[in-house]
C-alpha cells in the first residue's frame, strides 16, 4: 500500500521485560517495571510467544527472518524456554531461514546454555565495559558487587563451545578516556566484533527517572554520561589503531556503518541511516513501542494480541516517526559537511539547541564531527581500494606509507596531500609523526 515500509523490520523482543539479575547504575530499562505496576511477574506466556513468532515470520519480507532476544536478562527464563522458541520457529518458518541474536550480561551462562547456542546457531551479544576496574564501576549486582569475574567465566564458556559472539561496550564517564586499554582488552579476550554504545542519559532531579527523548527542556545529565568531545576522541583513537593493524580481523560497527555510508550503501544500523522506524521493541505482554529507547506511553503502537505486527510497522504514526529522523534535522545539521556519514545519529540524543537557538542538535555532535572529519581520508582510500577490486585490508599498507610521509610516492611539497585531507603535502603527511 502507498506510504508503507518496503524494507525488512526488526523487533527487539523482551520476553522477561525489565527483570534482571544485575543492578547496573546506568541501566535505562530497569525502571520500565513502573509501566506495568499490575504485573506479578514479567514473563511472556506460551500463547503470546507463539503468536509473536508466527506474526514475525509471516510479516517479514525476504527469505531470512532475524529474531533478537533481550531484557532485562533473558537467561533468567531458562534454556528450556528458548528451546521452545526454536521449536516454534521451526514450526512456522516454512521456507524461510531463521536467525537468532541473544543479548546477555553473561552471568548465568553455563554448559547447557552454550551447547544450546552452538547447536542452534545463536549469535550472542555479551555486555562488557572493558577491564575489571572499568566494567565494575557501573555494572554491579543487586548487592552492589562487581560482575566482571562472572562475565569472564561466561565468556570462557562461549569460547569453549565455539559460540559466535560479539561484545557490546558502553562508553561512559569511567572508561571514555581509556581507548587504548579498552582496545587491548577486547582484543585480548578474543572478541572480533565490537559495538560501542555512548551512554547519554538525563535524569529528573525529583524522582531520578529518565527524561523521555522528546523532552527538550533542561534536564541534568546523568553523572555517568559520556562527554561529547571525549567520546569523539575515543572513537578516533580506536579507529586509528584499527586501521593500522586489524582491518579484516576485527569488525567494529561504527566503522562498518561509516564505510557503508561513504559508499552509499545501507548501514544495517538504524542510528546511522537517514531515516529509522523499522526497529520496534516489544514488552513481555505484547505491547509494541516505536523503538527500544522510546519505551514510553506516548510511543506505544499497540499490542500484538489486538493489532498485528505488520500493521504496527506500517502504522502512519510509526512511518512519520521514522521519517522525522531526517525531516526534523536542524539547519546546522543539514548544512554539516559530515551529514552523509552521521545523519544526525539517534533522535533520542537530539535535545540540545544549536548556536542559532534551533532545537534538535545531537548532544554528541561535537564529538561526531571531530571523529567523522578525521576518518574521511581513510574511508576514501578504502572506497578506492574497492573500486580497484582490492580488499579493505590494503588500507594498512597505505597507513604505513602515510605514517612515513609517503616516501614511495612522487609528490611535491605543495601538492595536495595523498591522504586526501585537502591540505598541501608539506602541511600534512610530510610532517613526520
Top keywords for this entry?
single chain; 433 residues; 10-stranded mixed beta sheet
Structural notes for this entry:
- This protein is α/β, with parallel strands linked by helices.
- The chain contains 14 helices and twelve strands.
- It has helices at 46-59, 79-92, 111-119, 132-138, 148-160, 179-188, 228-245, 253-263, 309-313, 316-327, 331-334, 339-342, 365-387, 395-403; strands at residues 10-13, 64-69, 97-104, 122-127, 165-171, 193-198, 251-252, 279-282, 287-289, 300-303, 352-353, 359-361.
- Helix 3 links the parallel strand 3 and strand 4 (122-127).
- Helix 7 packs parallel to helix 13 (365-387) and helix 8 crosses helix 13 (365-387).
Indicate the mean pLDDT. Answer: 94
Radius of gyration: 23 Å
Which runs of at least 5 residues are low in confidence (pLDDT < 50)? Answer: 1-6
Helix content: 25-40%
Report the major sheet.
10 strands, mixed
Quantity of strands, as a count: 12
Give me the strand/helix succession. Answer: EHEHEHEHHEHEHEHEEEHHHHEEHH
Tell me the number of helical segments per DSSP (H or I, 4 or more residues long).
14
DSSP strand (E) fraction?
5-15%
Q: Distance between termini?
A: 57 Å
Q: What structural class do the secondary elements suggest? A: alpha/beta
As laid out across the biggest beta sheet, the strand order is 7-6-5-4-3-2-1-8-9-10
Structural shape: globular
Oligomer: single chain
